[in-house]
Amino acid sequence: MKTYMTVLGAAAAFAPAIAQAGELNLICSADIVICEKIVESFEAGHDTDVNMVRLSSGEAYAKIRAEARNPQTDLWWAGSGDPHLQAANDGLTQPYESPRLAELHDWALAQAKTSDYRTVGVYAGVLGWGYNTEIFDKKGLGAPKCWADLLDPGLKGEIQIADPNSSGTAYTALATLVQLMGEEEAFDYLKKLGSNVSQYTKSGSAPVKSAARGEAGLGIVFMHDAVAQAEQGFPISVVAPCEGTGYEVGSMSIVDGAYNLDAAKEFYDWVLSPEAQNLMPEAGSYQIPSNKAAVASDKALKLEEVKLIDYDFAKYGETETRQHLLDRWSREIGSSG
Questions:
Q1: What is the CA 75 to chain-centroid distance, rounded?
Q2: pLDDT for residue 186 is more than 70
Q3: What pTM does this model have?
Q4: Dihedral in degrees, nearest 10, Cα atoms 293, 299, 301, 305
Q5: Could you tell me if residue 75 is left (phi over 0), alpha (psi between -120 and 50 degrees) or otherwise beta?
Q6: Which of 80, 101, 154, 248 has its CA 20 to 30 A from that of 60?
Q7: What is the chain's alpha carbon radius of gyration, rounded to the nearest angstrom?
Q8: Which domains does the chain have, with CATH numbers?
Q9: What is the tens place of the pLDDT at every residue in 220-261?
Q10: Mean pLDDT of 188-215
């Protein structure tokens, strides 16, 4: 029976080893349950042992960058697309044109074309929040429908959002607000929001999990993560902000210098198939799959039902822009937390 490992935390690293035929070193930036489901299913149908580590998008980018001269990773699957685009921009990933590209939605193909085929879209998810209806009722708070509502003084200490340095979800939120409001107004908003934030988490999905457990009133997350908590029976209501919101194109990239390149391409092609993407709802995944023939869960949000901004993936995935926003956030928001 094949085995794989899951390791949590930015310090996790694959043990240096000589790559062997039939091995794949994989970083997974989806929820751990989804990571395990995908790896188990791939191993069941392929003669490949997968060594898997689960890292958030920001952590995955940092790991791949730190190991650029001696890559320990072959393939990075899932996580929001901006860090994947930055990795492509930095030459940390290599081009690959899968024979399945013609099967994908336009938004997934656009991710590939923007990066000169160094990354590709594997799913889409919309930014919003989930709030605990019991906490809101107990405090006499109205349902938060808009970004502006999150500045209500009654929400002091009730909001959680991740740190954009480690979380692709939170970076998407940061870039969304900048595109929606303009940079100066967005940072002014984030400073005011900080008065209501109890914690900047490492993981993008952690805020709504805290809200589900009653440890926070509201988590700013991708809406599919909030749907997952509601489907598990927690008192979570899911909201798409009225002013408009951004979205992610969860992506996949082959690391430049990947030792197990053939295995990486095999996984890459397989995970873009409708068969593989149809496995996602079984793991409680409510993202929108990138293969046009894949069937999304009936609980998944439809992009056409939400007011989306025209998210500029090329600009906000570009190294200079992304680093500027992260540095400013660290100086003005994170340091005051």
A1: 16
A2: yes
A3: 0.85
A4: 100
A5: beta
A6: 101
A7: 19
A8: 23-124+248-300 (3.40.190.10), 126-246+322-336 (3.40.190.10)
A9: 999 999 999 999 999 999 999 999 999 999 999 999 999 999
A10: 97
